[in-house]
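Re-run with default settings, no changes from the original entry. Doing this only to confirm the output is reproducible before filing.
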Amino acid sequence: MSSNLESRVKTVEEAMQILTQLALRADERMDAQDERINAQDRRMDEFDKRMAALVEVQAQTTANLSALAVLVGETDKELKSLTADVRETAEAVKSLTARASETDDQLKSLAAIVERYISEGRNGES
């Protein structure tokens, strides 16, 4: 019976060694898994930071586009106003050109009258 007991004790000791080895391997695998989880957490933190930066840039871009749209609207109004002013100026220039032409014609007529008056006046006195 003693040999049977020794055999059983030896079997229990071997089982304990195997269980200890399995526990160590499981612990190593858990450590490796913890490291992978920590690395994933770091990557997710970096991703979150980048995403927050992108969201901030997108919000700024949206604000800039809104401001640009307002400026474009104001520029469009100013351009329409300037276009109307240019048309009015063009009409005024046409009117002044026509009046200048009429004035030139009147001056030519006056010059002809004065020239005739002077010519006739000299002819009458001579």
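The two ends are 179 Å apart (CA to CA). The mean pLDDT is 92.
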